[in-house]
Amino acid sequence: MAPFTRAPKAAHLSWSREKLAKANKKDDDDAMRIDPTCPDSHFDPHPPYSSSPFLISTARIFFAASPMGSASEHDVREHLLDVDGVGEGAPAATAAGPKIQVRGLTRRSEASGEEILRGVDLNVPRGVVVGVIGPSGSGKSTLLRALNRLWEPAPGAVLLDGVDICGIDVLALRRKVGMLFQLPAMFDGTVADNVRYGPQLRGKKLTDAEVQSLLSLADLDPALYSKPASELSVGQAQRVALARTLANDPEVLLLDEPTSALDPISTQNIEEAIVRLKKTRGLTTVMVSHSVKQIQRIADLVCLVVAGEIVEVLPPSELSEAKHPMARRFLELS
């Protein structure tokens, strides 16, 4: 099996900056897939293009709101964020306060009715890396996917810059809040073709220098610019996917176990790119990971999720002080 595949064509928890400065897989896919009743879902339980779980999982990278559905040019355009701004009538964003606020976020399984998220409250400060960890099935990925409406949260449950994300055009939101998944998928063509794809849909062609700059930000050698995407290693492909996301100039980056399929060197490259983006661009990052050590290396805050609830938010240096019994057990066994 190829390491990656081409995508088909066509507790209110708020932390002060002072404390932050001082501190310095898909666990719930089986329980919660994208809501088939959501207008953006295009849910198809019998995908026509493949019965392979690997290809299905990979297709979800780009067609996130149609996780098991057939690919189309509309899907590609939608999920590479073919927009220029916020939706008509959306209120102006505010610069003060947390970058993201989550208030009373709840989600139930369509199949069983079981609660996946139970009244989650969370503040994500600006320009920090927040690591989300916890046992499998605890709701980490479901929480992450609410932040750019890969499923529809209740009105008022998720705010971006103080603005309810339900009032922002969904494509504009996904341009502001980019997402990188576990498995990279490359379009036909060169590395440069892949990086240019999103902006090109909006009528903007990135210059060679702009593409090479984005590759550097993703910790890639700009000399890979003209290399066929099909010849990349999985680690290189994941970083090209990161560069492609950055080409849309997001304000927030959501990462769902982006290094779980990578070797240690490729993992280090991705981690260094995340930290560099925080320092150079002030990018706010929320990252789901099963690796406690990884989160300790790169996160400013750690969010512990257990059974659909956030039970602890603390600096990585204080993880040993976690008080929740299940959180402590998870950390001890990690």
From TrEMBL:
Residues 1-46 are annotated as: Disordered. GO terms for molecular function: ATP binding; ATP hydrolysis activity; phosphate transmembrane transporter activity. Transmembrane segments: none annotated. SUPFAM superfamilies: P-loop containing nucleoside triphosphate hydrolases. InterPro entries: AAA+_ATPase, ABC_transporter-like_ATP-bd, ABC_transporter-like_CS, P-loop_NTPase, PstB-like. Residues 100-332 form the ABC transporter domain. It holds the Pfam family ABC_tran. Residues 15-33 have a biased composition (Basic and acidic residues). One of its GO terms (biological process) is phosphate ion transmembrane transport. The keyword Nucleotide-binding applies. One of its GO terms (cellular component) is membrane. It comes from the Eukaryota. PROSITE patterns: ABC_TRANSPORTER_1, ABC_TRANSPORTER_2. CDD domains: ABC_PstB_phosphate_transporter. Keywords: ATP-binding, Nucleotide-binding, Transport. Belongs to the ABC transporter superfamily. ABCI family. This is ABC transporter domain-containing protein. It comes from Oryza meyeriana var. granulata. The lineage of its organism: Eukaryota, Viridiplantae, Streptophyta, Embryophyta, Tracheophyta.
